[in-house]
Specification:
Strand content: 15-25%
Order of helices and strands: EEEHEHEHEHEHEHEHEHH
Number of helices: 9
Structural class: alpha/beta
Number of strands: 10
Distance between the termini: 9 Å
Radius of gyration: 16 Å
Shape: globular
Protein backbone atom coordinates (compact mmCIF):
# COMPACT_ATOMS: atom_id res chain seq x y z
CA UNK A 1 0.00 0.00 0.00
CA UNK A 2 1.11 3.59 -0.53
CA UNK A 3 2.46 5.74 2.23
CA UNK A 4 -0.55 7.72 3.51
CA UNK A 5 -0.73 11.51 3.46
CA UNK A 6 -3.14 13.46 5.67
CA UNK A 7 -4.54 16.96 5.30
CA UNK A 8 -7.50 18.76 6.86
CA UNK A 9 -8.23 15.73 9.00
CA UNK A 10 -8.59 13.26 6.10
CA UNK A 11 -6.16 10.63 4.84
CA UNK A 12 -5.32 9.64 1.28
CA UNK A 13 -3.38 6.52 0.42
CA UNK A 14 -2.61 3.77 2.89
CA UNK A 15 -5.53 1.38 3.22
CA UNK A 16 -8.22 4.03 2.57
CA UNK A 17 -10.57 4.05 -0.44
CA UNK A 18 -9.94 6.80 -2.96
CA UNK A 19 -10.85 10.26 -1.68
CA UNK A 20 -13.10 12.16 -4.11
CA UNK A 21 -13.34 15.93 -4.52
CA UNK A 22 -15.47 18.36 -6.53
CA UNK A 23 -14.35 21.92 -7.24
CA UNK A 24 -15.33 25.53 -6.66
CA UNK A 25 -14.02 28.55 -8.58
CA UNK A 26 -13.30 31.90 -6.95
CA UNK A 27 -14.78 33.49 -10.09
CA UNK A 28 -18.14 32.99 -8.37
CA UNK A 29 -17.19 35.39 -5.61
CA UNK A 30 -17.18 34.47 -1.91
CA UNK A 31 -20.92 34.46 -1.30
CA UNK A 32 -21.87 32.52 -4.43
CA UNK A 33 -19.05 30.09 -3.69
CA UNK A 34 -20.62 29.42 -0.29
CA UNK A 35 -23.93 28.68 -2.00
CA UNK A 36 -22.09 26.35 -4.39
CA UNK A 37 -20.64 24.46 -1.39
CA UNK A 38 -24.10 23.89 0.04
CA UNK A 39 -25.23 22.56 -3.34
CA UNK A 40 -22.26 20.18 -3.50
CA UNK A 41 -22.93 18.97 0.05
CA UNK A 42 -26.50 18.16 -0.94
CA UNK A 43 -25.38 16.50 -4.18
CA UNK A 44 -22.94 14.19 -2.41
CA UNK A 45 -25.02 13.54 0.68
CA UNK A 46 -24.64 9.92 1.91
CA UNK A 47 -21.66 9.38 -0.44
CA UNK A 48 -18.89 8.70 2.03
CA UNK A 49 -15.85 9.12 -0.20
CA UNK A 50 -16.50 12.74 -1.21
CA UNK A 51 -14.39 14.08 1.62
CA UNK A 52 -12.70 17.11 0.07
CA UNK A 53 -13.40 20.32 -1.83
CA UNK A 54 -10.96 21.89 -4.31
CA UNK A 55 -11.03 25.70 -4.45
CA UNK A 56 -9.59 27.06 -7.72
CA UNK A 57 -7.93 30.43 -8.15
CA UNK A 58 -9.28 31.32 -11.60
CA UNK A 59 -9.16 35.13 -11.49
CA UNK A 60 -5.61 35.53 -10.13
CA UNK A 61 -6.48 37.95 -7.34
CA UNK A 62 -4.91 36.82 -4.03
CA UNK A 63 -7.37 38.83 -1.93
CA UNK A 64 -10.47 37.46 -3.66
CA UNK A 65 -9.08 33.93 -3.51
CA UNK A 66 -8.29 34.24 0.20
CA UNK A 67 -11.74 35.61 0.99
CA UNK A 68 -13.41 32.87 -1.07
CA UNK A 69 -11.39 30.23 0.78
CA UNK A 70 -12.25 31.78 4.14
CA UNK A 71 -15.98 31.86 3.43
CA UNK A 72 -16.05 28.35 1.95
CA UNK A 73 -14.22 26.97 5.00
CA UNK A 74 -17.00 28.25 7.28
CA UNK A 75 -19.49 26.06 5.41
CA UNK A 76 -17.35 23.05 4.48
CA UNK A 77 -15.93 20.97 7.35
CA UNK A 78 -13.99 18.41 5.30
CA UNK A 79 -10.71 18.41 3.43
CA UNK A 80 -9.65 21.53 1.54
CA UNK A 81 -7.46 21.60 -1.57
CA UNK A 82 -6.14 24.95 -2.81
CA UNK A 83 -5.29 25.19 -6.51
CA UNK A 84 -3.45 28.24 -7.85
CA UNK A 85 -0.60 29.09 -10.20
CA UNK A 86 0.33 31.98 -7.91
CA UNK A 87 2.30 31.05 -4.77
CA UNK A 88 1.25 34.34 -3.13
CA UNK A 89 -2.38 33.30 -3.51
CA UNK A 90 -1.67 29.91 -1.96
CA UNK A 91 0.13 31.51 0.99
CA UNK A 92 -2.49 34.18 1.59
CA UNK A 93 -5.43 31.78 1.31
CA UNK A 94 -3.90 29.04 3.44
CA UNK A 95 -3.25 31.57 6.23
CA UNK A 96 -7.00 32.10 6.56
CA UNK A 97 -7.71 28.44 7.32
CA UNK A 98 -8.02 26.63 10.65
CA UNK A 99 -6.84 23.37 9.06
CA UNK A 100 -3.94 22.30 6.85
CA UNK A 101 -4.88 22.31 3.14
CA UNK A 102 -3.32 20.43 0.24
CA UNK A 103 -1.54 22.92 -2.05
CA UNK A 104 -1.37 22.42 -5.81
CA UNK A 105 -1.26 24.20 -9.16
CA UNK A 106 2.03 26.11 -8.91
CA UNK A 107 5.45 25.22 -10.28
CA UNK A 108 6.81 22.10 -8.62
CA UNK A 109 9.94 23.86 -7.32
CA UNK A 110 7.75 26.56 -5.80
CA UNK A 111 5.55 23.93 -4.18
CA UNK A 112 8.63 22.39 -2.56
CA UNK A 113 9.48 25.79 -1.11
CA UNK A 114 5.91 26.29 0.12
CA UNK A 115 5.99 22.86 1.74
CA UNK A 116 9.14 23.83 3.62
CA UNK A 117 7.70 27.22 4.66
CA UNK A 118 4.25 26.11 5.77
CA UNK A 119 4.49 22.39 6.46
CA UNK A 120 1.38 21.89 4.33
CA UNK A 121 1.27 18.90 1.95
CA UNK A 122 1.67 19.56 -1.76
CA UNK A 123 0.73 17.80 -5.00
CA UNK A 124 3.48 17.61 -7.62
CA UNK A 125 2.23 17.48 -11.22
CA UNK A 126 4.16 16.30 -14.28
CA UNK A 127 3.70 13.93 -17.19
CA UNK A 128 7.34 12.86 -16.69
CA UNK A 129 7.47 10.23 -13.95
CA UNK A 130 11.21 10.72 -13.47
CA UNK A 131 10.58 14.40 -12.78
CA UNK A 132 7.91 13.51 -10.24
CA UNK A 133 10.27 11.17 -8.41
CA UNK A 134 12.97 13.85 -8.34
CA UNK A 135 10.52 16.31 -6.79
CA UNK A 136 9.49 13.77 -4.14
CA UNK A 137 13.13 13.13 -3.32
CA UNK A 138 13.73 16.85 -2.81
CA UNK A 139 10.65 17.36 -0.64
CA UNK A 140 11.13 16.96 3.11
CA UNK A 141 7.42 16.98 3.96
CA UNK A 142 4.13 15.43 2.89
CA UNK A 143 3.52 15.14 -0.83
CA UNK A 144 1.24 13.53 -3.42
CA UNK A 145 2.08 12.83 -7.07
CA UNK A 146 -0.10 13.76 -10.04
CA UNK A 147 1.10 12.23 -13.33
CA UNK A 148 -0.89 14.79 -15.37
CA UNK A 149 -3.13 12.33 -17.16
CA UNK A 150 -5.52 13.78 -19.75
CA UNK A 151 -7.22 10.67 -21.09
CA UNK A 152 -8.11 7.13 -20.07
CA UNK A 153 -5.06 5.56 -21.75
CA UNK A 154 -2.49 7.82 -20.09
CA UNK A 155 -4.25 7.43 -16.74
CA UNK A 156 -4.11 3.64 -16.94
CA UNK A 157 -0.49 3.55 -18.11
CA UNK A 158 0.98 6.15 -15.75
CA UNK A 159 -0.86 4.97 -12.65
CA UNK A 160 0.25 1.41 -13.37
CA UNK A 161 3.86 2.46 -14.01
CA UNK A 162 4.02 4.40 -10.73
CA UNK A 163 2.48 1.50 -8.82
CA UNK A 164 5.07 -0.93 -10.21
CA UNK A 165 7.90 1.47 -9.41
CA UNK A 166 6.61 1.86 -5.84
CA UNK A 167 7.50 -1.76 -5.16
CA UNK A 168 11.21 -0.95 -5.44
CA UNK A 169 11.61 2.87 -5.37
CA UNK A 170 10.54 4.64 -2.17
CA UNK A 171 9.93 7.96 -3.96
CA UNK A 172 7.18 6.32 -6.04
CA UNK A 173 5.39 5.07 -2.94
CA UNK A 174 3.18 8.16 -2.66
CA UNK A 175 -0.58 8.58 -3.15
CA UNK A 176 -1.49 9.09 -6.80
CA UNK A 177 -3.76 12.00 -7.64
CA UNK A 178 -5.83 12.38 -10.81
CA UNK A 179 -7.10 15.84 -11.81
CA UNK A 180 -10.03 15.80 -14.23
CA UNK A 181 -12.54 18.31 -15.57
CA UNK A 182 -16.32 17.94 -16.02
CA UNK A 183 -18.78 15.61 -17.72
CA UNK A 184 -18.94 12.01 -18.88
CA UNK A 185 -15.36 11.66 -20.13
CA UNK A 186 -14.05 13.14 -16.89
CA UNK A 187 -16.04 10.47 -15.08
CA UNK A 188 -14.47 7.82 -17.33
CA UNK A 189 -10.92 8.99 -16.57
CA UNK A 190 -11.70 9.29 -12.86
CA UNK A 191 -13.12 5.77 -12.87
CA UNK A 192 -9.97 4.36 -14.46
CA UNK A 193 -7.88 6.03 -11.78
CA UNK A 194 -10.04 4.68 -8.96
CA UNK A 195 -9.72 1.17 -10.40
CA UNK A 196 -5.96 1.51 -11.00
CA UNK A 197 -4.29 2.77 -7.84
CA UNK A 198 -5.63 6.34 -7.65
CA UNK A 199 -5.85 7.70 -4.10
CA UNK A 200 -7.20 11.21 -4.70
CA UNK A 201 -9.52 12.19 -7.57
CA UNK A 202 -10.26 15.90 -8.12
CA UNK A 203 -13.07 16.70 -10.56
CA UNK A 204 -14.27 20.12 -11.68
CA UNK A 205 -17.92 19.07 -11.72
CA UNK A 206 -20.06 15.94 -11.83
CA UNK A 207 -23.80 15.38 -11.60
CA UNK A 208 -25.43 13.32 -8.86
CA UNK A 209 -25.57 10.14 -10.95
CA UNK A 210 -21.88 10.41 -11.76
CA UNK A 211 -21.05 11.01 -8.12
CA UNK A 212 -22.96 7.88 -7.11
CA UNK A 213 -21.10 5.79 -9.71
CA UNK A 214 -17.68 7.07 -8.67
CA UNK A 215 -18.38 6.67 -4.96
CA UNK A 216 -19.49 3.09 -5.54
CA UNK A 217 -16.30 2.33 -7.48
CA UNK A 218 -14.19 3.79 -4.67
CA UNK A 219 -15.87 1.42 -2.21
CA UNK A 220 -15.52 -1.58 -4.53
CA UNK A 221 -11.90 -0.96 -5.53
CA UNK A 222 -10.76 0.00 -2.07
CA UNK A 223 -7.09 0.32 -1.28
CA UNK A 224 -6.21 -3.23 -0.14
CA UNK A 225 -7.91 -4.82 -3.15
CA UNK A 226 -6.69 -2.11 -5.53
CA UNK A 227 -3.09 -2.72 -4.61
CA UNK A 228 -2.90 -6.48 -4.88
Amino acid sequence: MTEPVSFSGITVGGDSPAVLSLSITDALGPQMAAIRVVELIERTSDLGNFKAICIRDDISDPDVFAETVRVVSTVWEGGIILESRDPASLLTASASLDRDPLLMGSDNTVLTELNGMTGFPVAFRSDDISDLLDMVQGCKGRCIIDPATNNMKSCLERNTDIHRLSERIPEANRPIMTRTWSGEYALAVASVSVMRYGSLIVIDDLDRDGCVILDGLADTFNAPRNRE
